[in-house]
Amino acid sequence: MMKATNKGKRNFFIKKYINVYLIIGFVILVPLILVTFFADKIAPYDPTTVFSGEYLMGLSNKHIMGTDSLGMDIFSRVMYAPRIDLIIGILATSLGTIIGVPLGLFVGYFESRKGINGKISLVLIRILDVIQAFPVFILGLAIVAVTGQKVINVIYVLGFIWIPVFARLVRVETLRTRDKLFVLQERAIGQKNSVIIFKHILPNAISPAITQISTSIAASILLTAGLSFVGAGVRMPHPELGLMISIGSGNMITGQWWPTVFPGIILAILVFGLSMIGEGITISIDPRNWK
Amino acid sequence: MITFKILRILKFIGRRLLYLLPQLMGVTIVVFLLVRLIPGNPAYVLLGQGASDEAVAVMSERLGLGKSIIVQYEYYIRGLLQGNLGDSWFTSNPVLIDITQKLPATLELITYSIIIIIALSLFIAKVTAIRGNKIVNNILRGYGFLAGAFPDFWLSLIIIFLLFTLAGIIPAPIGRLDISFISPQRVTGFYTIDSLLELDFKKFANAWSHLFAPVLALVIVNSAPILKMAQATIIRTQKEEYIKFAKDNGLSDKFSERMIYRNSLPPVLTMIGYIYIFMLGSSVLVENIFSWGGMGQYAVQAITHSDYAPMQAIVLISAIISYIVYLVLDIVYYSIDPRVEI
């Protein structure tokens, strides 16, 4: 009897939350992540070893994906490279979420209310507006140029760019929730604002931010690759996908495609997997899709 | 009735412009602070290596160094109002001149891309969503996810490899015209338009052949989110009660189709504006691959040479362009949907 109910529960869970997008996403991402984090053990060579005399070698048994113009083994580098992109993407998105979500709650809850908090939230909205006025890539490029080309700065810059995105998503939901009866009730009995915000509004306002997370990680990875491509992100000889594409770009026109094509495909698979998971989460947390 | 509508729109524009001023001020504050974040004397930073003592003294005077930060900001704004964006030590030109030369190249690239994207999404909306073809819909959804995953700079390189190196059907990816052509007399800065004004059809064709590959790369990547969005919005609108109601009342398919279009337009428009601004940033990479000589390439050149005056100006100008785009969008929005308030 007990077993049966458990099974029922599990089926319900599967029907409720699991969908084809999530499955595709995990099938793509899990092997990729395992490979990149165990690259030390699996990769045939060290990613920064230069094989002198073996520049731009085509595909062979020794170098499965060939070598680049510096004589480094592309297969090994491609195994290591997603690591730094993923770390940057995850940390930058976490930064954006950790600052953006509370900011959105605050702004949404106090917006156009009397008192000092109302005024602060008005100023904050305007500041968020200003940050979002800049084209993302140009702002990122400029801030990295100003603060110096270090990986940690790329994380800060991308995190900074995500703050207004998360704040805005949460703000809209907060505005929608703050005048609901259960919130007014709490206010009427004199509950502290902080308790109302985190206990009652947060659970109701968080879902668009959750769906944004994997989209943001994917976009951060593309931005990191772009920054590295123009020399404003991860630097040589560190294996990073955008940087690898950049090293290969000069040889593309003369027909040596392998240093460029392989890292690009890995990058696309990574981003595709993340956006699949993003879509899967969007569908599974929307109650309208629960069967 | 029509004059009344125009008056209302004018009033809306007026209010919207008023709202723009503080925003522009915020943008200038960010841009102003950007250079002050760099450690060291801003006069040295802006002048670059090897600046003479006199030049530094003149620059310090102009920046108002030594005075309070508010006064320095005031100096900066005064300079801006006089059209002074500083000088680039790398090109040794005033930045304003460099940018007026280079900006049209970038705008030509992304404007044609967005026009094609819009045409494409209209077409797709017509054949798939409205007709409700399930297979085409699924293919489209797959395309939306897949194309959005490829970095545009990588795709540009692939296009060069396939169409130039292998097939040889596009010109060498260097610049906006073959070397044998002189750039047309500048009227709009768009080579495709200027060459036409000169009635030089060979140059016109050549400009297009150079535009083809970068535009293709930008369209493939950036049409993905718009197509996905247009599709989703139209499918959602089709399920609305008022559409069903119209159909049940025997109104023609053509009529309900028009209703669907019109009601799906606002979110798609917002997305189009957003993508245009996004491309202004991401075209930096595509421009560098094609040696386009536009603002994006100028930006990378500025950054690799620590040339901060142009960098500051590019950030400012790209923000101003995005405000103009959003302003135009808001006006379009307002004229199709009068319920919109600021």
Q: Helical amount among residues of chain B, as a percent range?
A: over 70%
Low-pLDDT residue spans of chain A = none
**Gyration radius of chain A, in Å:** 23 Å
The greatest interface between two protein chains, and residues involved on each side, is:
A-B, 46 and 52 residues
SS elements, strand count of chain A? 0
Number of helices of chain B: 13
- Helix and strand run of chain B: HHHHHHHHHHHHH
Mean pLDDT across all amino acids of chain A: 89
Extract low-pLDDT stretches of chain B: none
The helical percent of chain A reads over 70%
Quickly give the structural class of chain A: mainly alpha
Order of helices and strands of chain A: HHHHHHHHHHHH
What Rg of chain B do the Cα atoms give? 24 Å
> What is the overall shape of chain B?
globular
Distance between the termini of chain A: 24 Å
Question: Can you lay out the helices and strands and say which pair or pack?
Answer:
The complex is a heterodimer of chains A (291) and B (342).
Chain A: H1 2-17, H2 20-37, H3 39-42, H4 74-110, H5 116-133, H6 136-147, H7 151-177, H8 181-188, H9 193-205, H10 207-229, H11 241-252, H12 258-284
Helix pairs in contact in A: 2-4, 2-12, 4-5, 4-7, 4-10, 4-12, 5-7, 6-7, 7-9, 7-10, 8-9, 10-11, 10-12, 11-12
Chain B: H1 2-36, H2 42-47, H3 53-63, H4 69-81, H5 95-130, H6 134-149, H7 152-166, H8 191-197, H9 201-238, H10 241-248, H11 253-289, H12 295-304, H13 308-336
Helix pairs in contact in B: 1-13, 5-9, 5-11, 6-9, 7-9, 7-11, 8-9, 9-11, 11-12, 11-13, 12-13
